[in-house]
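Posted in: Protein Modeling Q&A

I'm a second-year student putting together a small comparison for a lab meeting, and my supervisor asked me to include a predicted structure for Stage III sporulation protein AC. I've never done this before, so apologies if this is the wrong subforum. The sequence is pasted below exactly as I got it from our records. If anyone can share the structure token output, I'd also love a short note on what stands out.
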Amino acid sequence: MMSVDLIFKIAGIGIVVGILHTVLAKIGKEEYAYIATLAGVVIVLTMVIDIISKLFDNIKSVFRLN
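Accepted answer (user: helix_wrangler)
Welcome! Here is the predicted structure, written out as tokens:
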């Protein structure tokens, strides 16, 4: 079962990355701002991919596809 904690972690990462991107863009470091945004996306995608792999494992066990 998906936890509300995961949703809050993803939202927190999004807020932090958004603020970091804005601050870096305002001081003229657009390249670093885009790198920070990309890092945030990669972190969230790894979290989501882990959940999706667990979902597929559960589906395989329910339909006895092992």
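A couple of things worth pointing out for your meeting: The chain has a mean pLDDT of 92. Residues 4-62 form one domain.
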